[in-house]
Design goal:
six-stranded antiparallel sheet; single chain; two-stranded antiparallel sheet; alpha+beta; 12 strands
């Protein structure tokens, strides 16, 4: 299999008229009614959720897997964050309109956030694409909607407020996709959500306390860059900056290997970084050449990703006071591939990067990929690369009041619609959804049913830990 983009095929791309695309959406609605998306019944042959997680763990770093289970056990919501593979199997049995987009594959609310654009503006967008793959647009919307309901329940919102959060999120997606359907192709491509402008618009809908908290969080995000990471993650050893060990969450290369083995691996890493550089466009290659590799460490990240191989590379530029931290994260097959077929990309790192560039309005300037034929475990692996921190920030969901979470849901709904509009038939999707709230209410019903299923799966994991079937490491 060779590398290929979603649209790079030998066949000519059909260019349907607007009327034909509207007809396509309405035909899909007739075949798969919007109300049908309310349905969720666990299949009689549904796999044991703990077994699914154990299956995923087979390719992960064994000593890190208990940390993943421990993080998933914090709450039903953190369980949901790590259960993308479980939900992918459930979604595969739900109705499909037949309209495909580039899916995020894991579009829960914590996979949206703020980060810096190359123009040094703070933007809001999707920020996790490990599971990205072309697929049904409604799968992303369902995962987002269910995450909103589960989060609202975690915050002990009244049932009425829980429902409003979900309905506002889905309605935002529906109205936004309709707006994008009326826009020119280039206007869709240039659309983005500038967080300062969005906050100005939302201020009138939020309590002054919520606005102040948000402004404080955004100010903090602007301080999260390579310089702040450098101050937090390094110390000086023999006059050279080195990454501080914090096992098992951060383990420098010096603690993994010693002597000639360490030197050989470091040389190999430098070679691999040169290979990664070739995945960047020319001007970013030139920029990256201004930095030299100084240190390397394994780092545990996220919830669902824990156990996959993730590294941080400390690069230094001018005079030892110009740091750049790169995150090098393993990319495995998307959880959607079992149900939708294999990716068109031979390298899963390239799959992630291609999906991210297609769905995001703007991406990290150092976003790229590489392949390692033989690493520490002598296994071939794919990776994608990006900056570790560049004004990154995420919502403190547990601090949100109902009105704040509903406003956040509207931001997420708009953003997901914009991402889908860039890759799919936005006109057909808008025609399918229509202007009424039939789909919104169907997804509320779906989310309520799936939140109950997620709670059962969470309890199954807790029971497996209590019985000794699996081991969980908490507090990490």
């Amino acid at each position: 299999m060779t590398s290929a983009s979603v649209s790079d095929t030998a066949a000519a791309v059909p260019h349907l008229t607007v009327a034909e695309r509207v007809a396509r959406g309405k035909a899909a609605r007739a075949e798969v009614p919007r109300s049908s998306h309310a349905a969720f019944e666990p299949a009689s042959h549904r796999p044991d959720p703990v077994q699914v997680l154990q299956q995923q763990a087979q390719t992960r770093v064994p000593e890190l897997v208990p940390i993943r289970y421990g993080r998933m056990l914090v709450s039903p919501f953190t369980f949901y964050r790590g259960a993308a593979m479980i939900m992918a199997g459930d979604l595969a049995a739900t109705p499909r309109s037949g309209l495909h987009v580039q899916c995020c594959g894991d579009a829960h609310l914590s996979n949206f956030g703020v980060f810096a654009s190359p123009e040094r503006r703070l933007v809001f967008d999707l920020n996790d694409f490990d599971e990205t793959l072309p697929g049904p647009w409604e799968w992303d919307v369902k995962r987002l909607a269910a995450s909103m309901l589960i989060a609202a329940r975690e915050n002990d919102f009244r049932a009425k407020d829980q429902n409003r959060v979900v309905l506002d999120t889905v309605a935002s997606y529906r109205t936004a996709i309709t707006q994008f359907a009326a826009m020119k192709n280039l206007d869709v491509w240039y659309a983005h959500l500038d967080i300062d402008s969005a906050l100005s618009e939302l201020a009138s809908q939020l309590a002054p306390r919520s606005v102040k908290r948000t402004e404080k969080a955004l100010a903090k995000a602007r301080t999260r860059d390579s310089m702040s990471a450098f101050a937090k993650l390094t110390h000086i050893v023999d006059g050279q900056p080195r990454i501080v060990a914090e096992p098992p969450l951060i383990v420098p290369i010096d603690d993994l290997l010693s002597g000639s083995e360490r030197d050989e691996m470091f040389d190999e890493l430098q070679t691999r970084l040169r290979s990664y550089r070739e995945s960047l466009i020319h001007d970013r290659r030139v920029l990256l050449q201004e930095f030299r590799l100084t240190d390397f460490a394994r780092k545990v990240v996220g919830v669902g990703s824990v156990g996959t191989r993730a590294w941080i590379a400390l690069m230094m530029g001018l005079d030892g006071a110009d740091p750049l931290f790169l995150q090098i994260k393993e990319a495995e097959a998307s959880v959607l591939e079992e149900h939708l077929g294999p990716s068109a990309f031979a390298n899963h790192g390239e799959r992630v990067v291609a999906g991210q560039r297609l769905m995001q309005a703007t991406s990290d300037i150092f976003l790229g990929w590489l392949h390692v034929e033989s690493g520490l475990d002598d296994q071939p692996r794919d990776f994608y690369v990006r900056q570790l921190k560049d004004w990154k920030g995420s919502a403190e969901v547990e601090q949100m009041i109902p009105r704040g979470l509903a406003a956040y849901g509207r931001l997420c709904g708009w953003t997901l619609a914009r991402a889908h509009a860039r890759s799919g038939d936005r006109i057909a999707i808008a025609a399918y959804l229509g202007r009424g709230d039939v789909f919104d209410r169907a997804l509320l019903e779906f989310s309520q049913a799936y939140a109950e299923q997620n709670a059962r799966d969470y309890r199954a994991l807790a029971k497996a830990v209590k019985s000794g079937r699996i081991v969980a490491e908490t507090g990490l």
